[in-house]
Amino acid sequence: MSKFLTAGALGLCLLASPASSAERTVTLAVENMSCAACPLTVRASLEAVPGVTKVVVSYKDKTAVVTYDDARANLKALATATTNAGYPSGPKD
């Protein structure tokens, strides 16, 4: 009986956690950053996207390195966030 309970509890734990969720990191090329204050706005727009866990923006390189949970965020959501803030972006080649 206890084997069935243990197996059932394990099964529930596996169902409760998303199996396809993974942490991803992408480097975005960010347009329109023309002053040293622009990265603050870019970072804030990306941090507001659900699932984003880390953002590092470089004014010098005109990039944003974003770490996110791909079950909660995606590249389109990241690009939309920066574009809506006035800084169009896309994956850096």
Number of strands: 4
Instruction: Based on Cα principal axes, name the global outline.
Output: globular
> Taking strands numbered 1, 2, ... along the chain, how are they ordered across the largest sheet?
2-3-1-4
Elements, N to C (H/E): HEHEEHE
Which percent band covers the strand fraction? 25-35%
Helix/strand structural class: alpha+beta
Q: Work out the helix count.
A: 3
Helix content: 25-40%
Q: Quick one: biggest sheet?
A: 4 strands, antiparallel
Mean pLDDT: 86
Rounded to an integer in angstroms, the radius of gyration calculated over CA atoms is 18 Å
Low-confidence stretches: 4-17
Multimer state: single chain
Instruction: Give the end-to-end Cα distance, rounded to a whole number of Å.
Output: 56 Å
What order do the helices and strands come in, and which of them pair?
Blueprint (H helix, E strand, L loop, with lengths): L1 H15 L6 E8 L7 H10 L4 E7 L4 E7 L5 H10 L4 E3 L2
Antiparallel strand pairs: 1-3, 1-4, 2-3
